[in-house]
Write a structure and sequence with these properties.
about 350 residues, alpha/beta, TIM Barrel, 10-stranded mixed β-sheet, globular
Length: about 350
C-alpha cells in the first residue's frame, strides 16, 4: 500500500521573470535581491525531507518552485537527484522558458505535473503579471501536454478578477488542462486588502458561479479535474447537502481542511522553513535544525493549535473546514481569527 504524501513547497530561487501585483514574495518592495539555494544545501534538504518522511510514515512530494525554478543553475541537477531517489516531484513556475525540449526532459526525469497561473482572461492576466504572459501561458500548456506532463492551472481570485472566473473555467475546460483550482488573494498591505477585498456573501456568489460552470463541464464529460482547493467549499457543499458530517466523527477531531503544520512545509532559498508560505510563519532554518526537528518543534506546534480558532472551533464543520488561516492572517495578523470571507453565522 502506498504511503500518503507529505508536501514540501520548495522555493529554490527568488529569480523570476514577473512581478505579479498579488505576489507575496515581492510584496511592497520586499525581496530586494535575488537569493538562490546552493547545491550542497539542496542535497541536504532532500536528505532531511527523506528522514522526516521515514519517521512519520509518509512519502515526500516536492513542489519545486521559486521565483521560477528553471532559472536556478542547478535545476536540472536537482531534477536528476529526485529522479534517482525515486521521489515524486512537480514544478510550480512560469511559462517563458518552457519548450518542447525542456518539457520532454522534465518528463524523462519524472516530473509529474507543472502548475501555471491564469489570473483571468488576457487583459486581466497580463495586468496582474506582464504583457504577453497570457499568450505565453497558453503556448506553454501545449508544450506540457505534448510531453505528457499533467498541466495544472491555478487562479488567485479577488474582486479584481472574480467576474471572469466562469469564463476562465470554460477556457481551461476547452484546453483540457488536467487540473484547475483557485485560491483567494492573501493581503500583503492594508491598501491591497481593500483593493482586492470580497465580502463574504460576494465570495459565496463567486463559488456558486464557478460551481455552475464546473458542473456543466463535468456533465459534458470534461477531462479537467476541478479541485475544490478553498476550504470554504466545504461550507457551501454542506449547505447544499452535498457534504454531510460522518456519523462516527468525533467532536474536536481534525479530518480535513488546512494542512498548515500537519502535512506541508515550505523551504525558502535562504533555508528558512515556514509552516505556510502565504503568511509569516517561520519556524526555523535547515542550516540550524533539520526538517524533522522543525516539524516537531514548539514553533510548528504553535501553528497547529486548533483550539485557538476563535470562530471555527465553535462550528460543526471545524474538523473539515477552518477556512484559510493565511488569508485570515493577511487581514488580521492572527491566523486563528475568523476567516474574512466566511459567511456562516455562529451562535455563541
Amino acid at each position: 500500500m502506498q504511503k500518503p504524501a507529505f508536501a514540501f513547497q520548495w522555493h529554490i530561487t527568488d529569480e523570476c521573470d514577473q512581478r505579479c501585483k498579488h505576489c507575496y514574495i515581492f510584496a511592497n518592495g520586499a525581496c530586494a535581491g535575488f537569493k538562490r539555494m546552493p547545491w550542497e544545501q539542496m542535497v541536504e534538504v532532500v536528505d532531511q525531507a527523506q528522514a522526516l518522511c521515514e519517521r512519520i510514515g509518509r512519502q515526500p512530494y516536492f513542489y519545486v518552485t521559486g521565483g521560477d525554478p528553471i532559472l536556478h543553475p542547478d535545476f536540472w541537477r536537482l531534477a536528476e537527484l529526485l529522479y534517482k531517489r525515486g521521489f515524486m516531484w512537480c514544478v510550480m513556475g512560469n511559462p517563458f522558458h518552457l519548450t518542447d525540449e525542456v518539457c520532454a526532459r522534465m518528463k524523462e526525469l519524472g516530473c509529474r505535473k507543472y502548475q501555471l497561473s491564469l489570473d483571468g482572461l488576457e487583459a486581466t492576466h497580463d495586468y496582474f503579471r506582464k504583457p504577453g504572459s497570457f499568450a505565453e501561458t497558453l503556448r506553454a500548456i501545449g508544450c506540457l501536454k505534448r510531453a505528457g506532463i499533467w498541466v495544472a492551472v491555478m487562479n488567485t481570485v479577488s474582486s479584481m478578477n472574480a467576474a471572469e472566473l466562469p469564463q476562465l473555467i470554460d477556457l481551461v475546460a476547452s484546453l483540457e488542462v488536467d487540473v484547475f483550482a483557485f485560491g483567494r488573494y492573501c493581503p500583503t498591505s492594508g491598501q491591497k486588502r481593500d483593493e482586492f477585498h470580497l465580502e463574504p456573501l460576494e465570495y459565496r456568489d463567486v463559488l456558486l458561479a464557478a460551481q455552475e460552470r464546473m458542473e456543466f463541464h463535468q456533465a459534458a464529460g470534461c477531462k479537467t479535474f476541478f479541485q475544490l482547493k478553498d476550504h470554504l467549499w466545504t461550507l457551501l457543499l454542506w449547505e447544499q447537502g452535498k457534504f454531510t458530517i460522518p456519523e462516527n466523527a468525533k467532536p474536536g477531531m481534525i479530518y480535513d481542511g488546512c494542512h498548515c503544520g500537519t502535512g506541508h512545509m515550505t523551504v525558502l532559498p535562504t533555508g528558512d522553513v515556514y509552516a505556510c508560505r502565504r503568511m509569516e510563519s517561520k519556524v526555523g532554518n535547515v542550516a540550524e535544525n533539520s526538517l524533522e526537528e522543525l516539524f516537531f518543534s514548539p514553533q510548528m506546534e504553535a501553528k497547529r493549535d486548533f483550539k485557538k480558532f476563535k470562530k471555527c472551533s465553535k462550528c460543526e464543520l471545524f474538523g473539515w473546514c477552518r477556512g484559510c488561516p493565511a488569508v485570515t492572517y493577511g487581514y488580521t495578523g492572527d491566523m486563528y481569527d475568523a476567516d474574512p470571507q466566511c459567511w456562516k453565522e455562529i451562535e455563541e
